[in-house]
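Let us work through a complete example step by step.
Step 1: write down the sequence.
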Amino acid sequence: MTYSQSSSVGNQTISDVFILVGFSFLHKLQILLFVVLLVIYLLILIGNVLIILLIKLNPSLHTPMYFFLLNLSVLEICYTTSVIPQLLVHLLVEEKTISMVGCAVQLFVITTMGLTECCLLAAMAYDRYMAIRSPLRYTITMSGRVCALLAGASWFIGISLEVAQTTWIFSLPFCGSNHIHHFLCDIPPVLNLACADTSKNELMILIASVLFIVVPFVLIILSYICIISTILKVPSAEGRSKAFSTCSSHLMVVTFFYGTSLLAYVVPKSSSTKERDLLISLMNTILTPLSNPIIYTLRNKEVKEALRKIVEKGFFAHNW
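Step 2: predict the structure and record it as tokens.
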């Protein structure tokens, strides 16, 4: 079978089908990776859907923090569903192809979800700061309208920016090899296939990264500096511990998200191999979506109490 269909433009060849090389180097171990990823994907879906249902069904969780968490769970489901099902198929077949349109859609979704998550995590940090700094005015400051504006702005930034960026990238001519040395259509490997000057695209990516990845991270750091400063002013040790526990889950999620992203995109790769880079990228793809529901269910008393009530209702309804 021919992997690519192409048309000639001058002396350039534009492919409308890409080949995601992915984990072909694992050979027979691809079956084992398939099983592991299938289990992880199901856990991600179950965990995040459970979070969404718990928040929707429990009035006690209709607060700003859980409103943002619901958005985060929706985001994680969209992100992993855009990547893992296709990867699972490619682990079972020899012809690991993806159409140019499919590649563009996947790149749009993963980059949109990434930018939106950066903004959402910053909004959640601000929410935690307001909860600790002004607990008596918290419900007024973080009203439903304010929360909706913060979440809406996060989604709008991610979607609008990536519509422009994805359109720009896929308006470039692609020629030569149509092999993408990755398991997904990410910006760097796709740009590597372009046979045109990509300096403007790279400049746009740099500007977008500074504005919507670095700036939210700086805002998160500043929020936690203010949070820690406020907590240290609390006179009792019990009060300090209670105050810090309200933001510890969010801090762990931020650490996982930015920690894995730094490993995948920022750490110099001169001494690493393509195989190692792929495994790091895979960890970045699955670790945060898997860890979020675990962190917020195991470390959060309100979520555990809501889960207990639903389980008890289900048990009594079954026995009745």
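Step 3: interpret the result. The chain has one domain: 16-319.
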